[in-house]
Design a protein that fits this description.
484 residues; mainly beta; 6-stranded mixed sheet; 5 helices; 13% helix; 38% strand; disordered N terminus; binds copper (II) ion
């Protein structure tokens, strides 16, 4: 075989063409990659310093047993009410730990049906998330399960079953988890208000039908009695001058609250557990099922000897929630800077970022309750999930920015909740919204489209669902997988 000069010339020409193509293609690819990298990392860079990736356990373990059991308690107006309760209390015990402490909770199931505990808003290891079939098997009657985790964030969180939740939560299974900072701000006092409603029948007991067609066709089960900390006419006795940290938690199946603090020196300092970037006016805040608000409340001397009613205004018909009863005594107000000074990214540039996942929310007839709530035309199959088949999950790359879009194609409310993650509202109906705080639950009104941004750092398979428990129970659930 000989190589002719013509062949050589042809090969050289081909080689040059190839080099030329590479010389153009490689820098193009590299610059496209760099540009994409730069755009992603602009949001990720802005995210840095928002909250820690890892827990910092200090070696202190707080052990608690929560026994879920039927009980009869004096609730609402003092008459005996048959409930399901943690440790015989409704609300369940307020668990308080300091940041860095490890919580070890033994759940004992004495209910007539299986259960689990989900730690709403807490960035737990995935296996501790309490979602049956996805992160753990259901805890059968008579069985126990140990939840152990070290919270990564200080704030107001809560816990409840994640199995047949529309029944179990309505019967009274919920409690609050307060994670205090290593050095909590020196408030005069730290109070928890659990907001709830109860659907009672004519005998004054819990209406025993759950997931009714009525509830499913509307915004879930709305009760005929509204309570704070399990009772009507709740009062908070304070002294003028006191500065109070008031932690509001909405544990209702479906009801949204819009508490009115007009006339009081009240500022929102944290939403869904996480401190805001600055103190905010509480007017206009809608507390959907799952949401929490921490209020920094100073009682002015001008209210000495007065009673200040706090009412809910969500439905347009004012509903009394509680009363702040101010003593004649005046104490000095603790002076310290608002703890609401968290780093929260603005993500103004995120409007141009493509949507990674879109969730269309709607309903159809069918399923075990006659109506199914769907995400992208799929109803979550709880029975299959409990058996370990939880369908396909949207993958969200850990440490990267993701934009999620919720499109409410229905006329009902949907407070959308993502487990184990915090997100920030970017826009409503295409209009940019600057909320200087994180959320783990965002309320969608009828026909509304909402974009949220997040940089997930907690890996695992997490539920994404509507927190109207009847909507979730009838299918409005899916999973996301945060993967490295
Ligand atoms: Cu819903």
């Amino acid at each position: 075989m000989t190589t002719t000069t013509t062949d050589l010339a042809r090969n050289t020409r081909r080689f040059r063409q190839l080099i030329g193509a590479v010389a153009i293609a490689v820098p193009l690819a590299v610059s496209t990659w760099l540009l994409a990298g730069l755009r992603v990392s602009a949001e990720v860079r802005e995210f840095r310093g928002s909250y820690p990736e890892d827990a910092q356990p200090r070696g202190v373990v707080r052990e608690v047993t929560l026994t879920a059991t039927p009980a009869v308690v004096p609730l609402l107006d003092g008459r005996p009410l048959a409930v399901w309760a943690y440790n015989g209390q409704v609300p369940g015990p307020v668990l308080r730990v300091r940041l860095g402490e490890t919580l070890r909770v033994t759940l004992v199931n004495r209910l007539p049906q299986p259960t689990t505990i989900h730690w709403h808003g807490v960035r737990v290891p995935n296996a501790m998330d309490g979602t049956p079939g996805v992160t753990q098997p259901p805890v059968a009657p008579g069985e126990t399960f140990v939840y152990e985790f070290t919270p990564k964030d200080a704030g107001t969180f809560w816990f409840h079953p994640h199995l047949r939740a529309s029944e179990q939560v309505a019967r009274g299974l919920f409690g609050v988890l307060v994670v205090e900072e290593a050095e909590p701000p020196p408030y005069s006092r730290d109070e928890v208000w659990v907001l709830d409603d109860w659907l009672l029948d004519s005998s004054g007991q819990i209406f025993p039908q759950f997931n009714t067609r009525h509830d499913l066709a509307h915004d879930g089960r709305w009760g005929n009695v509204v309570t704070v900390n399990g009772t009507r006419g709740t009062t908070l006795a304070v002294k003028a001058g006191e500065r109070i940290r008031l932690r509001l938690v909405n544990v209702a199946n479906g009801r949204v609250f819009a508490p009115d603090f007009a006339g009081l020196d009240a500022r929102v300092i944290a939403v869904d557990g996480m401190y805001a970037a600055r103190p905010l006016d509480p007017a206009g805040f809608e507390l959907a099922p799952g949401n929490r608000l921490d209020i920094d409340l100073t009682i002015p001397a001008s209210l000495r000897g007065k009673r200040v009613p706090i009412t809910d205004h969500f439905t347009g018909r004012p509903i009394p929630l509680a009363e702040i009863v101010v003593a004649d005594e005046v104490v000095e107000t603790p002076r310290f800077a608002s703890p609401a000074r968290a780093h929260v990214p603005e993500w103004r540039g995120a409007a141009a970022t493509p949507v990674r996942a879109e969730y269309r929310l709607n309903a159809r007839t069918g399923g075990p309750f006659g109506i199914q709530w769907t995400i992208n035309d799929e109803a979550f199959d709880h029975d299959a999930a409990h058996a370990g088949d939880h369908g396909s999950a949207q993958v969200l790359p850990a440490g990267e920015f993701s934009k999620l879009r919720f499109v409410n194609e229905s006329y009902r409310l949907h407070p959308m909740h993502v487990h184990g993650q915090f997100f920030k509202l970017l826009s409503r109906n295409g209009k940019p919204v600057d909320e200087p705080h994180w959320r783990d639950t965002v309320l969608l009104h009828a026909q509304e489209t909402v974009d949220v941004g997040m940089v997930p750092v907690d890996v695992g398979r997490w539920m994404l669902h509507c927190h109207i428990l009847e909507h979730a129970e009838s299918g409005m659930m899916t999973t996301v997988e945060v993967r490295r």
